[in-house]
Hints:
This protein has 264 residues and is an alpha/beta fold.
Amino acid sequence: MRLKDKIVLITGGYTGIGKAIANRCLEEGAKVVVNGLREEKAEQFLQGRSKEHIATYTADITEAGVPESLIDFAIAQFGRLDVLVNNAALISSSNIKSTDLDFLRNMLEINTVAPFAMIRAALPHLAESKGNVLNIGSINSWSGEPDLLAYSISKGALMTLSRNLGDSLFRDYGVRVNQINPGWVLTDNEKINQREQGMKDDWFRELPDLFAPSRRILEPAEIAAGAAYLISDECGPISAQVLELEQFPMIGRNLPKRWEGFLK
Length: 264
């Protein structure tokens, strides 16, 4: 029970990685406040659960005043705040031709500015509890795919935010800030996205080892396991760090031998 009696706020927590983190936090003894955009998803998340340790708040965190209202709600529900998990994000394909300025600004607003606003709103309470922040980024933070240009820019900015605040907030307030960069994760939304791009229903069962050496991609629960460590007291003074959760290295990756002739 690494998170016993901790109060954890998770944005974008009704589905996918956020939901897996919420589930892991509950298993580890925490009380959770979960945010998302759609009330029907909140109802699905709450179905069959005791509300003694869970509260939901459906709102768009990019709207003015919502970060502050969400923090106030968490304090009103459970009396304090120990952990903020910034998981809410927009994933959308774009390249240099299709990324106009409005699209880029919207991507940055959701994936970078909103987490910053959440941290600002939460800081007084996290400073009081000597709590911490966990930002959920992406391996695309490092450069990204050609058709994930705006998304990659926003996640790269988030990574710099995590490293910068992980140093300054820990020194000045005792608040740790870390980030997880997940690789390819098999969320329900990813299954839908791939089907919409023409893949068959069970596309994830026949992956080439070029993209997945294990012949499978990560499960949301595997990301949540890393999150549980980083937000727990067991993590000690670790701050300003980025944990890459992927099955191959971001730098110096060894391609399968069958590609060697192609690359010569």
